[in-house]
Design goal:
By secondary structure, this protein is of the alpha+beta class. It has three domains: 25-33 and 478-631, 2-Layer Sandwich (Aldehyde Oxidoreductase, domain 4), CATH 3.30.365; 42-149 and 214-291, Aldehyde oxidase/xanthine dehydrogenase, a/b hammerhead (Aldehyde Oxidoreductase, domain 3, Alpha-Beta Complex), CATH 3.90.1170.50; 307-413 and 425-476 and 635-788, Aldehyde oxidase/xanthine dehydrogenase, molybdopterin binding domain (Aldehyde Oxidoreductase, domain 4), CATH 3.30.365. The protein contains 20 helices and 28 strands. The strands form seven sheets. The protein has a seven-stranded mixed β-sheet. It has a five-stranded mixed β-sheet with strand order 7-15-14-13-8, sandwiched between helices. A hairpin with a 5-residue loop joins strand 16 (421-422) and strand 17 (428-429). The N and C termini lie far apart (76 Å). InterPro entries: Ald_Oxase/Xan_DH_a/b, Ald_Oxase/Xan_DH_a/b_sf, Ald_Oxase/xanthine_DH-like, AldOxase/xan_DH_MoCoBD1, AldOxase/xan_DH_MoCoBD2, AldOxase/xan_DH_Mopterin-bd_sf.
């Protein structure tokens, strides 16, 4: 029934800008969510993957006879079986080029290793049995004959002339020698600089650690491969599986996704396990399921980050930026994931500019293979890092030049009268208010009162530091995205989209957009997003672009609904189409078609029902208001802001606590402030985790030393401060909603804010830099070393 309270005196209760609670939450909080592991299909068998215990070695043989003889076993397969079946390898198709113009060298990763194993956890076989326990028992009976080889785990070490070689056709382990920028001009700028700030920085490797481990079920139904799996976009995953791996027409593949417990980039692309399941399901003519254990996730889920960077900033005598230069090694792991080279190359290039008028940029990155778990996108995917490098350089320059870091930022901000601004990175910023955001943050964070708080900390034997994280990130550009609208028989309206919610809360935000556009009752809006059969396009969720893409698609589709509705309303009201007007929020806040100059009309929901019930319609009257629409594309957007963190350090233990945190953010038009604040909180938490706690560690022979939560430290509630969130919106002009994206910005602000605060606290001892993660051990060692000098 229509909600007569839909309109309040000033604004729509469920419209854009309202903090509407997530429509997903009642289902999830009452345990009615449906994740992949919750599904049990009739006749379902279980799969267990056999993984290499060695980081590097030649496969001499795989004995499966004992495993096949185990109780309940339905089959055991090796890489030779899958190659014989004609499947293709997974590879990286990114159009990145070496500095000599040649394309990157992609690895060709088969689902199961056939010649060599290249990291601990590399899949070499799989077992399918009636039960999971039987499959696990049988997997332990698979015997591997592997001649071990030396391993290399660091990208810089992999570049050495005597380093172990992972592939015979990729000399020097180098898949990409990336270079962007005018070296001669940058060198001249550095030569003429009054001051050069230089830092050696480590962007530590991260375990993604999504709440839900990966899980999938493969079936073969009516001649089609069907994969039920948690992912970031069913349309793209279906295409990758069909075109690249299965080598079948896309019509023969269907991907279904229900609820997804987090991803942060990690679940975006195909994994070896998915082909194993689909192959076994076809061979056995029954569903086959696999769910990873957390120990397996640490090994097999793609990791994030992992770069070794020398960052340099050239400044003139007035501390104006002349050039910034990044020289890096990027660790790809043992195989190239779909987007692996992007983070340390193009995304460094785009994002190190930040919100500063830096005239010259140079980025040189060598992307190298190592005997480690493959690396892929992780929240921000190079965007937070670019900002982190710049903000750390600014703090270093300020300390060395004796100029306030706030002043340096203000002098170099792009001014409001410079928009649209053609950045040296090639981006074209459409707008912003960078200095005002900085000033508002300093006020909101009560920076003026910091000295008193520092004195109070000192009275208790603790060091206190304050750090600023100014940031601007370049989102992924919104590409083709579906905005389907379907009026259902039960009186609901379904939005069909190719983006996919894996924790963000798309249902409510998208429903707010549709309600705002044409007055569909909010409570009657549903979201369909996880069935590739329903889609004609879909860019998936990633790169902070979902609202810009799906929101624009929904708005354009809504216009088409109104266009169809005028013709239908003319029939229903016995008027000419030219006399029909549409009011998006009439009485009760709902959409209504009216005959101009009269009070005669029909509500959009009633009109949809009339069409649905009609037995015949005159020519020219649409049979339904349903629309299938594809939004084309738009330029990327530039969310920005400023975060201020305060930390306390116990110098006797090295323990660092984030005790105060403030953020002011320009995310353009905000559809749902509650969801946006939640996104910022999540990103800030992950940034704090990387800055202070998290690090993937490998032994020299490639064994994962941080393979469980006993050895890998995620931030807990007690590690998090109360987070102040303030919005300073400057609407984007590059998309119909004016939105800028917010999903990854929390990391972009928190990495530099927390680390700058820590260095500020440690400056008492003359310490000018410490790498992430600044664990208690590292901080304590740095303090002891400083005390000894």
């Amino acid at each position: 029934m229509p909600d007569t309270n839909m309109l309040d005196p000033t604004r729509l209760k469920f419209g854009i800008g309202q903090p509407v609670p997530r429509a997903e939450d009642p289902v999830l909080l009452t345990g009615r969510g449906r994740y992949t592991d919750d599904i049990a299909l009739p006749g379902q068998a279980w799969c267990v993957i056999v993984r290499s215990p060695y980081a590097h070695g030649v496969i001499r043989g795989i004995a499966t006879e004992a495993a096949r003889a185990m109780p309940g076993v339905l089959g055991v397969w090796t890489g030779a079986d899958l190659v014989a079946a004609g499947y293709g390898p997974m590879k990286c198709g990114m159009p990145l080029k070496n500095k000599d113009g040649s394309p990157l060298r992609s690895t060709q990763r088969h689902a199961l290793a056939t010649d060599k194993v290249r990291f601990v956890g590399d899949p070499v076989a799989f077992v399918v049995a009636e039960t999971r326990a039987e499959a696990k028992d049988a997997a332990e009976m698979v015997e591997l004959d592997i001649d071990m080889l030396p391993a290399v785990t660091e990208a810089s070490a992999a570049a050495a002339t005597d380093a172990p070689q992972l592939y015979g056709d990729i000399p020097g382990n180098l898949v990409l020698d990336f270079h962007q920028g005018d070296s001669a001009k940058v060198a001249a700028a550095f030569a003429s600089a009054a001051h050069v700030a230089r830092l050696s920085l480590r962007n530590n490797r991260i375990v993604v650690s999504a709440m839900e481990p990966r899980s999938a079920i493969g079936t073969f139904e009516e001649g089609r491969h069907v994969l039920r799996v948690g992912c970031q976009g069913v349309f793209g995953l279906r295409n990758q599986l069909a075109n690249e791996v299965l080598k079948v027409p896309v019509q023969q593949v269907r991907v279904l996704t229900g609820n997804v417990g987090g991803s942060f980039g990690m679940k975006a692309n195909a994994y070896p396990e998915y082909l194993c399941l689909l192959h076994a399901a076809k061979e056995l003519a029954r569903p086959v399921k696999w769910t990873d254990e957390r120990s397996g996730s640490f090994l097999s889920d793609q990791h994030g980050r992992d770069h070794e960077v020398v960052a340099e900033l050239a400044l003139d005598a007035e501390a104006k930026f002349l050039a910034v230069r990044l020289t890096s090694f990027a660790n790809m792991g043992a195989y190239l994931s779909t987007v692996a080279p992007l983070m340390g190359t193009a995304n460094f290039w785009k994002n190190v500019q930040s919100n500063y008028a830096t005239p010259l940029i140079e980025v040189a990155t060598r992307c190298l293979l190592t005997n480690t778990t493959p690396v892929s996108a992780y929240r921000g995917a190079g965007r937070p890092e670019g900002n982190y490098f710049m903000e750390r350089l600014i703090e270093a320059a300020a300390a060395e030049m004796g100029i306030s870091a706030v002043e340096i930022r203000s002098r170099n901000h792009i001014r409001t009268d410079q928009f649209p601004y053609a950045a040296a990175s090639g981006s074209r910023y459409d707008g912003g208010d960078f200095t005002a955001v900085l000033e508002e943050t300093l006020s909101a964070a009560d920076v003026a009162g910091f000295a008193a708080r520092k004195a109070e900390s000192a009275s208790q034997g603790r060091l206190r530091g304050l750090g600023i994280g100014n940031f601007l990130e370049c989102t992924a550009p919104p590409t083709k995205e579906q905005g389907g609208i379907r009026f259902e028989k039960d009186g609901t309206v379904t939005i069909i989209t190719g983006t996919l919610d894996y924790g963000q809360g798309h249902w409510s935000a998208f429903a707010q957009v549709l309600h705002q556009a044409i007055g569909i009752p909010f409570q009657q809006i549903r979201l369909l997003q996880g069935d590739s059969d329903e889609l004609v396009a879909g860019g998936g969720t990633g790169g902070s672009k979902s609202l810009m893409a799906s929101g624009a698609a929904i708005m354009e589709a809504a216009e088409l609904v109104v266009k169809k509705g005028r013709d239908a309303a003319a029939w229903a009201l016995e008027a000419a189409p030219t006399d029909i007007e549409f009011e998006a929020h009439a009485e009760g806040g709902h959409g209504r078609f009216l005959i101009a100059g009269t009070d005669r009309g029909i509500g959009i929901m009633d009109l949809a029902a009339r069409l649905r019930d009609a037995t015949s319609l005159p020519e020219g009257v649409p049979p339904t208001l349903d629309v299938t629409h594809v939004f084309d594309e738009a330029p990327q957007a530039y969310p920005n802001g400023c975060h201020v963190a305060e930390v306390e350090v116990d110098p006797e233990t090295g323990i660092v606590s984030v005790v105060r945190y403030t953020s002011v953010n320009d995310f353009g038009v905000i559809v749902n402030p509650m969801l946006v604040a939640g996104q910022a909180h999540g990103g800030i938490a992950q940034g704090i985790g990387q800055a202070l706690l998290e690090r993937v560690a490998f032994s020299d022979d490639g064994q994962l030393q941080s393979g469980s939560y006993m050895d890998y430290a995620l931030p807990r509630a007690e590690d998090m401060p109360s987070i102040g969130f303030v919005s300073h919106p400057v609407p984007a002009t590059t998309n119909p909603l004016g939105a800028k994206g917010c999903g990854e910005a929390g990391c972009a602000g928190s990495l530099p804010a927390v680390m700058n605060a820590l260095v500020d606290a440690l400056s008492t001892y003359g310490i000018r830099h410490i790498d992430m993660p600044a664990t208690p051990e590292r901080v304590w060692q740095a303090i002891q070393a400083a005390r000894a000098t």
